[in-house]
Amino acid sequence: MTVLDLLLDPLTYGFMARATATVVVAAAVCGLLSCWLVLVGWSLMGDAVSHSVLPGVVLAYAVGAPFAVGASVFGLLCVVLVGLVRDGGRGRVKEDAAIGVVFTTLFALGLVLVSVTPSQVDLGHIVFGNVLGIGTAELAQVLVIGALVALVLLVKRRDLTLYAFDPVHAHAIGLSPRLLGALLLGLLALTAVVALQAVGVVLVVAMLIIPGVTAALLTDRFVRRLVLAPSVAVVCSLVGVYTSYYTDTSTAGAVVLAQGLAFGVVLVVTRLRVARQAGPGRTRRSDRAANDDVAAPAA
After folding, report:
1. Domain 3-290: which CATH class?
2. CA separation for the pair 39, 173 (Å, rounded)
């Protein structure tokens, strides 16, 4: 069997073709958004939104509605509630505490709803993903939402980047940091819905954070990160999909594991490169200090 056969064989099955398309779209969108999430420091917010959509998914399944609708509503609700809890505490409740309270409460609500509707909802598919069971309608939802998020990010990339680097300067030139922050959070909620289709509630945060962190290790230029992060995410996701197919393992787990391994490799290579560059400089500084110490008594 040739390499081309290995690449094309899984795609001859309809369910694998849909799964691959879903994972690629989710990886690209998550990778793009992750650049801003890492820059702003919203890793925990990504975790919160991804877990908070669970009750929305359960309710959507229970009433027969598209689960993307329920997930989007509760994702946005999480964002609103975090702001209310943080601001309502009059400075006594920090943002990380507000996030912890809101997302654990909403996730617990989702678990309760699952327990009272066991016949309609498969908890395993929601929590760990069921990308191999993606239908044409679900794939269409992923494509539409993913395209919308990517389009908004690309159109507003300059404003969002300025907001992420310096909200004060953004306000000084006439932009609204509050509106830009709300826009970014809204896009986060929609992106979580897309990623949920691929890897489930638990692993969404990995797809939202790992690509951005990996790209940050590779370059200091933010524009380059916007290219590297989705590229790395897509390549790793394809590796995960094909690995899961030929080894008969969890697709969601293989996708996230591939991204995690890529991050580990980049981290090790970066550390080695930094150590190699710093080595000669340190040696010269040490020699210079030693010579000064020897010359001091003679003076």
Report:
1. mainly alpha
2. 21
DSSP letter assigned to residue 10: G
Task: Report the C-alpha gap between 128 and 126 in whole angstroms.
Answer: 6
Contact between 146 and 30 under an 8 Å Cβ cutoff? The reply is: no
Q: Which residue, 288, 284, 236, is CA-closest to 261?
A: 236
CA distance 108 to 96: 18
Helices (H) and strands (E) in the chain, counts: 13, 0
Query: What gap in Å lies between CA 102 and CA 37, rounded to an integer?
Result: 19
Residue 270 burial (10 A CB sphere; 0-12, 13-18, 19+)? middle
Each domain of the chain, given as residue ranges in start order, spans 3-290
Q: What is the pLDDT of residues 59-76, one digit of tens each?
A: 888 887 877 788 888 888
What is the average pLDDT across 138-164? 91
